[in-house]
Automatic annotation (TrEMBL):
Keyword Nucleotide-binding: yes
SUPFAM superfamilies (UniProt xref): P-loop containing nucleoside triphosphate hydrolases
InterPro entries in alphabetical order: DNA_mismatch_repair_MutS_C (IPR000432), MutS (IPR045076), P-loop_NTPase (IPR027417)
Gene, per the UniProt record: mutS4
Domain of life: Archaea
A GO MF term: ATP-dependent DNA damage sensor activity
The DNA mismatch repair proteins mutS family domain, residue ranges: 398-574
UniProt keyword list: ATP-binding, Coiled coil, DNA-binding, Nucleotide-binding
Coiled-coil annotated spans: 208-235
GO biological process per UniProt: mismatch repair
Name the UniProt record assigns to this protein: DNA mismatch repair protein MutS
Keyword Oxidoreductase: no
Organism field: Halalkaliarchaeum desulfuricum
Length: 601
């Protein structure tokens, strides 16, 4: 395949890749999602990730209808990659994409769930052995030999079933010999880019020192002869100083001296010496030059012999070597995702073909600390019982929910949580909820509140969120405070239109707004939910029940905010100003709130 056939690879990128890696190796790096090789070739990491996501996509990376949805996707993969056991596993996670079929989603989901359970079941010392095996693999440069050694280490530790099942049938003896052989040779500098030790020609292999005693001795002799050749004048002076008076004595002295300095036999040296030397300098230089050439040939011949023998050991275990390399790569990938799932208590969702999104006790992965889980749903679902907050389970069958309520009440966080659940399930990963039913969506539109108020922002927002609803594809709409980009009266009209369009197109949607009272009667398959602030904590922080109450308009409860401002005011003038606001919002309610907060203290 031509490099420019890949998305994002233009003429300049192609030229750089060909210069640094060669066309064949560059294609291999793209196809295998080798981020490191492409970054080392001088391509910016962000661009490499974008290229590889499209080149290796199992589904459609363009299904994100907005940049906000893509941002959540990027953040999810960055978070998951932080649990990678190897650099290669991290690279594979970063280029994951939504999967194209329900079968592929379910298959990966089973794999990752099994890996999560396997990781949870490992005791801490055993986990350390696993992480050490993969760390050694990375430290050794993720070579074929490092993969074989990692496979052997995992087998020796008893990991042969379940997630580690690919290791079960490997021949340990053959792999051990192959690992030794792979460790004894390396690709020579003359080897073509992308060559592999097992398939390389023996001329392209270099045998490491310490592998073969005879080869090491030949190399030492060659090095000694080369040193003498580089100091031929010193050889002449040394021999003359030892008393050689005529040419014959000089020649004999040279032979004996070279033999003593290099370890070569006098016969080897005499056979390399010229018979027609015109003087001492000619004799020494030609003798040493010929010796260097002959010795290099001896080293090359022996190196080829040893390399061929080592390749034989690798070839004998070729199938096991390839299986070990693939197994280590796949196990590290699955187990890394399993670690991610275990760390965040991710659970396997129920994947369905219908348009539905229902979560029970869902949590936002981007929040830290203690988080109140939330139960929510749009579409037909079977969540039973009550939500975490004790409210009834969300009604089933509503295609659109209009979410209202207190400022800082977690409405945007809920939208982001629903987006996280959808995207994770779309990639075949467990989700941050006790239970979840997730349907298939062709487009996910997530739109955060943007604090800009002009015609340009309104136009660009409408152009990003309306077209997905105009297609026949299944669309999930998660839109936050639409009124922030136009005047409230007109925003209510536009929001009514979006709700009706969502329902008419059989899409699903959750729309966050403070304009619920201004909306026209909603379609039968739409409802209004509310989040309520309940007061102030003893630290005068807003206390919110983040679990929406279904079929109820939430309240912003400004008296709580004003109460906090009154209580925290240190300047007399500022306090008087806030007290004036308290009169406007209801002085009695403010005083009651302040009294309750002080009582808690």
């Amino acid at each position: 395949m031509q490099l420019e056939a890949y998305w994002g690879v233009g003429p300049k990128t192609r030229e750089r890749l060909e210069a640094e890696l060669g066309a064949e190796r560059a294609v291999e790096a793209i196809e295998s999602a080798d981020i490191g090789a492409l970054v080392d070739a001088g391509i910016p990491r962000g661009r490499v990730v974008r290229i590889l996501r499209r080149a290796n996509a199992d589904g459609d990376v363009d299904r994100f209808g907005t940049s906000d949805a893509r941002d959540v996707y990027d953040e999810l993969l960055s978070l998951a990659a932080s649990y990678a056991l190897t650099e290669r596993a991290g690279d594979r996670i970063r280029v994951m994409s939504p999967l194209s079929s329900d079968g592929a989603r379910r298959e990966r989901l089973e794999t990752v769930t099994a890996a999560r359970d396997a990781w949870i079941d490992l005791e801490e010392p055993t986990r350390e052995r696993v992480t050490e095996a993969f760390a050694a693999y990375d430290d050794a440069g993720a070579t074929d030999r490092a993969a074989v050694r990692a496979a052997l280490s995992l087998r020796e530790a008893g990991f042969r079933g379940g997630t580690f099942g690919a290791l079960a049938d490997l021949d340990e003896g053959g792999l051990s010999d192959a690992a030794d052989a792979l460790g004894a040779v390396r690709l020579a500098d003359s080897a073509p880019p992308g060559a592999a030790v097992a398939e390389a020609d023996s001329d392209d292999l270099a045998v490491r020192s310490g592998t073969d005693g005879r080869l090491d001795r030949l190399r030492e002799e060659l090095e000694a002869v080369e040193e003498l050749e580089n100091a031929a004048f010193d050889v002449i002076e040394t021999v003359r100083e030892r008393g050689a008076q005529d040419l014959e004595a000089f020649q004999s002295g040279v032979v004996e001296y070279v033999a003593s300095e290099t370890g070569l036999s006098t016969g080897e040296i005499r056979s390399a010496a010229p018979d027609d030397a015109v003087d001492a300098s000619d004799y020494v230089s030609r003798t040493l030059r010929e010796l260097v050439a002959e010795q290099r040939e001896r080293v090359t011949d022996r190196e080829r012999e040893v390399a061929a023998e080592l390749q034989e050991d690798v070839a004998t275990a070729d199938e096991d070597v390839e299986a070990a390399i693939a197994a280590v790569d796949d196990i590290a990938f699955a187990l890394s995702l399993g670690r991610f799932a275990a760390a965040h208590d991710l659970q396997k969702p129920t994947l369905v073909d219908e348009a539905v999104l229902a979560v029970s006790n869902a949590r936002n992965l981007f929040l830290s600390g203690e988080v109140q889980p939330v139960t929510y749903a749009v579409g037909e679902h079977d969540l039973a019982g009550t939500s975490n907050g004790g409210e009834p389970a969300p009604p089933s069958g509503d295609r659109v929910a209009v979410l209202t309520g207190a400022n800082s009440g977690g409405k945007t966080t809920l939208l982001e949580t629903l987006c996280q659940v959808t995207l994770l399930a779309d990639m075949g990963l467990p989700v941050p909820a006790d239970r979840a039913t997730v349907g298939r969506f062709d487009t996910v539109v997530f739109h955060r509140r943007h604090a800009s108020f002009n015609a340009g922002v309104l136009e660009s927002t409408l152009k990003s969120i309306v077209p997905p609803l105009s297609d026949e594809d299944r669309t999930l709409m998660l839109v936050d405070e639409f009124e922030a980009i136009t005047e409230p009266g007109r925003a209510a009209d536009l929001l009514n239109g979006l709700v009706e369009l969502t329902v008419s197109r059989d899409a699903l949607g959750v729309y966050v707004t403070h304009l619920a009272d201004d909306l026209s009667p909603l379609p039968d398959s739409a409802r209004v939910d509310g989040i309520f602030a309940e007061g102030l904590t003893q630290d005068l922080e807003l206390e919110v029940d983040y679990q929406p109450r279904f079929g109820t308009i939430g309240k912003s409860t400004p008296e709580f905010i004003v109460s906090r401002l009154v209580a925290n005011a240190r300047d007399r003038a500022a306090r008087q100003g806030f007290e004036k606001l308290a009169e406007a919002v209801g002085e009695e309610a403010v005083q009651r709130t302040l009294s309750d907060a002080r009582w808690e203290r």
